[in-house]
């Protein structure tokens, strides 16, 4: 019976379930239609779905060539990204997977180079070097897989060919097995096993991304006590699990007051459910957070206000903590509609604005045309069917997102720590490779 | 309400009749006689018994009461008694006799406290009791000790639901019925009070006009009692009406200004003038006040504000201001081509009516809610705002959300500032000042924020999922219990906020107004001309001293 109820409403859960059984192309089409129909929404659900899809894409791709893998991921990634270009996390995950493959391929090649220099004794060690458990641990520890995996690469930068887009030029690969004639048979065999390892390593990397998606809120919440002091009045907007966990973590130790703007009409039901602690209806959200205690159960006073009252109350607010849909490379963010006026009102009142967001929401896209980032939603939420006569006569608008410029944000808190908006480009360049920015 | 100026008012009179009986079966109000002074009198014989009860019971519920010495106990009982007497007196005054305003009551209770045995302490307690008495006014009928304890608990619970920052604004609950209103209150005023409470008559000018029209009927029906003069007695008679109206909804600034002008006119009537002449002169005064200060003023404002609109303009406005509506319609009649973008907010959705009127008149209307402010303001060329009041420090006191719109217009990133034009009659000017939206505001019922879910099922067909889980529950209880519960729960709950009053620490805040800083306002269009916001106090002085 539970399986029936899941199948009734397609969403993240049903997609993940079907991923194991369906062939990969069906799964891609499945995700595309889910994204197009907006049956998977929210950044995290999209990111999780994409990560799982990428994992199946790679595990289904029998080829062992890194180029082929990249091609395959690019093909699938482009299609999924085109399905819902405004869900920027989809592109982010695809880019990170591509980056993973490129890194592994590069490390592999470096391994080959060092191997050809050192001789055949070190053969079995080099590919294992990345499987070193301490290294994996350090991944998990700071969450930035790129920075740590980059270490061997930079240290071996003496080999100039490997630095710059080795993969786009296949000639070193062909020349490589041909250099020492004696090593050529074992070398080819080795290369094969390397490539096989690439796939396994990439799958490991994707699993880490999936783990990161699961842990990101708790990692961010760990910084909560550094930012919330006692008796503070905090204003937040819409229901974001990241913000909720952040506040809950602080609520365990400190007493403060939360003013919650409801973000009518797009997300007010979820907001009401979050603050009153009643389980939300859609099973898309019915994961761990559905069983979470609400803030009011921890003795935190929560005041629900309509969005219009934000300016009136801002003079009493100490801090504005906002969730976001995605963060752009310039430090601006795309967040639920209404966030911009809240951030602006906070700026006018000199109230600090803190944005909490996982690194996976950080997109390398630089916005030249802000309007293209904004999605417009269901108009019937603004004017219901009971006012049908009005709909014929007037133009009703229901924007889902706002672009908030970077100057309105004072601080970003990601799972890597707190950053100024002007620093975000560094984190972007740590996480994505230049050649993947345009997938 | 013989001939309302506003056409909306005429329809509202008939529309509002049903809600009055509907409100009758309220929880708070035990069924009681139509004459409100009667229960107060009935209470008097009960008083000693209740006093004893109260004195005996007083130490028991309070935890610290156990440690009291007999002397202290005696003193406390005395203080209680004094307090009760004071309250009783206050009650009788507010319901039966002359209201005298709070000043008179204070004097009475203070005198009593001074003469009582408690001395300074007694005075304090008397004052507190008097306050308490006023608050408990609606549930006068239930005088039993247990009910009082229950009421206290209820009150405590109620206070927990009050947002502490706004604690000073939670005075009295809005009146729910006309029961308990003084017998002097005219039926027209009774009806108007309920209309104002239900937002049938909403908006500063509409409320002002409606009040004045109702008062005109009060004056027409008024006869001076023997032994007093009209100039003296009519003012007190009117204050009953005013007190009633203010319990339905706090008075607006414009209402206050109009009432002040009316009282001034009454008091300046020569006592030698015959009553009929005096009454007709007062009615004339009301008519001319409405005409000069509101009807004609609106026309003048609409005319001069419409001049500010040019072809190709995109006008942004917030909620539904009648004067902005008039301005836009005037400009449209002048043949100007422009677009209107209305921003609306929960819970009143006043902009919907404006959108409907404008669209019916053939204007190009765009409609969005507060979440779309930054999008609506993007291609705006002018912002027109209505006002509830203009404060003496040039700030605009208007429907909550106005400040956000004005701010967005001024802080548009990378663009030129959009001029913000406020349309406001001078009758809405006040000599009060406001720095933030917290000190002065109005709290509306928070239940208005609890969304009523639209009916999910529009067809008459039975829901196919509904009966199936119920059957399985009967059949295999253990296996299917969890999913069944979740499905039934999702069906039964309308809104997650429905039980917000039961869940601790959760508060809902529904304020009515906010204060827009003067620097966001470029121009105030009044019937006396277009001014900068800094000119508000000067104009206010001019218009009141005339």
UniProtKB/TrEMBL annotation, chain A:
InterPro entries linked: eIF2B_beta_subunit, IF-2B-related, IF_2B-like_C, NagB/RpiA_transferase-like
Subcellular location(s) of the protein: Cytoplasm, Cytosol
Residues covered by region (Disordered): 108-154, 168-191
Gene Ontology MF, one: translation initiation factor activity
Compositional bias segments (type: Polar residues): 117-126
GO cellular component, one term: cytosol
Subunit structure: Component of the translation initiation factor 2B (eIF2B) complex which is a heterodecamer of two sets of five different subunits: alpha, beta, gamma, delta and epsilon. Subunits alpha, beta and delta comprise a regulatory subcomplex and subunits epsilon and gamma comprise a catalytic subcomplex. Within the complex, the hexameric regulatory complex resides at the center, with the two heterodimeric catalytic subcomplexes bound on opposite sides.
Protein name: Translation initiation factor eIF2B subunit beta
UniProtKB/TrEMBL annotation, chain B:
Compartments, record wording: Cytoplasm, Cytosol
Region entry Disordered, spans: 1-154, 455-498
Ranges annotated as biased composition (Basic and acidic residues): 79-94
Signal peptide limits: none
UniProt keyword Iron present: no
One GO molecular-function entry: translation initiation factor activity
GO CC annotations on file: cytosol
Gene3D superfamilies: Translation initiation factor eif-2b, domain 2 (3.40.50.10470)
Superkingdom classification of source: Eukaryota
Pfam families (UniProt xref): IF-2B
InterPro entries attached to this UniProt entry: IF-2B-related (IPR000649), IF_2B-like_C (IPR042529), NagB/RpiA_transferase-like (IPR037171)
Family that this chain belongs to: Belongs to the eIF-2B alpha/beta/delta subunits family.
Assembly and oligomerization: Component of the translation initiation factor 2B (eIF2B) complex which is a heterodecamer of two sets of five different subunits: alpha, beta, gamma, delta and epsilon. Subunits alpha, beta and delta comprise a regulatory subcomplex and subunits epsilon and gamma comprise a catalytic subcomplex. Within the complex, the hexameric regulatory complex resides at the center, with the two heterodimeric catalytic subcomplexes bound on opposite sides.
PANTHER family: TRANSLATION INITIATION FACTOR EIF-2B, TRANSLATION INITIATION FACTOR EIF-2B SUBUNIT DELTA
Name by which UniProt lists this protein: Translation initiation factor eIF2B subunit delta
Organism in which the protein naturally occurs: Aspergillus sclerotiicarbonarius (strain CBS 121057 / IBT 28362)
Organismal lineage: Eukaryota, Fungi, Dikarya, Ascomycota, Pezizomycotina
